[in-house]
Amino acid sequence: MYSGFTPALPPPKHPMSSLPPELLAEIFQYCSTYNADAPLLLGSVNRRFREIVHSHPAVWYKLRLRLGFGTEFAQIQKAGLWFKNRGACPLKVFMNITNTCAPRSDNSEQEWFSHNYPFLIALFRKNIHRIHALTLQSDTELKAYHLLDAITASSPVSPTESLQLHSLHFQITADIPPMPSGWSPVFESFSLFPQLDSLKLINHILPALTPPNIVHLQNLSIVRPLTAPPLPTLKILRMISSAPSLIHLDIDSRISGEPLSDLHVETELPALKSLSLRINNLPSTLKLLASTSLEKLRLTDLDGRRPRAGEELGSVMANLTRELKTKDGSSGGLDLLKSLEIAGVHCVSSTSAHWDWCIRHLPRLESLTLNKSGFDLKMKRPSLTVEWDNGGYGFASLFDYDRRHIEDTQVKGVSLTDEDSSW
Asked: Cα separation of 374 and 396, whole Å?
């Protein structure tokens, strides 16, 4: 006899359940690029996700810690989990120490970290050779460097056992104090990392660096808020000249305008392949940093609304296209330039001749981005891709930075666009 009871059907399987574990691991790794804690979140969904997460080291490549938030035991558990699941693969670490209450005495902060976080510091000392990239977010430079000294205090510094840190980023949240233009702090911590090839300084006092501290440095980024004191051009040149291997340079800061006759650089500047300048005094600074090896050039003039700004920058670009001195003493132009982006300047039709001539004489130029309302170019190059932006949400805006770099956040008005700011 029919009882009227219908057995419940099993719930339909989610489409992701049919994906092979290797593909799911790739998806989980991609999720980790947006959120460092993705392994914990994904592993809590179900048993299959947890098994996949804990069996693929690639998912655990970013570790995010916040000292001062919660107990040291919780931080040790989290760090230990990442070091264990990452295996022998290199790890990227982000540490936020802005909420720690370390003493202001310069001689006691290193001991303070070791005293208040002894087991965490010991864990990092044991695994420091496995850290490939390190980002420190702090309210002062000294606190960041004292933590760096604490976790590397017992590490070997001989050439055969040097630390394998390749990328070092500092994010300072406090305002940069006014100081004499010629003063630069000396941080000996840089001498511990001979393999360092990427350095980003966000809202950071420009340090004094000399070879061999950054002899292998290839990428340098200096980002400062508009409210910070202007950065002396001579200090920039001295720092760049200390990095003979530098090929990518990014400066986002106000620049002080010393007369060119007062600038003397004892050593040669490196041959850059990529140069990004978002500064004032753009024409004069560009003349100092441009080289015949440039393949990518990105320029944003913070004073672009001044009279004749477009004409001045166009004239400099035309002159650089005509003649630049190479390292062997011969002359050349921007013949290798493939990508050119200009923003912040207004160029009326009467002064477009410089830009027309310049762009016509860049033989390898493939991509050009210009202000739509600021340029009236008549040149025709079928092989050239021209992108017109009208500001706002376009080139050089915060939206554009977010689109290009994915990770974007704000600290005291500074756009933190480095790859670790999404942690």
From this structure: 14
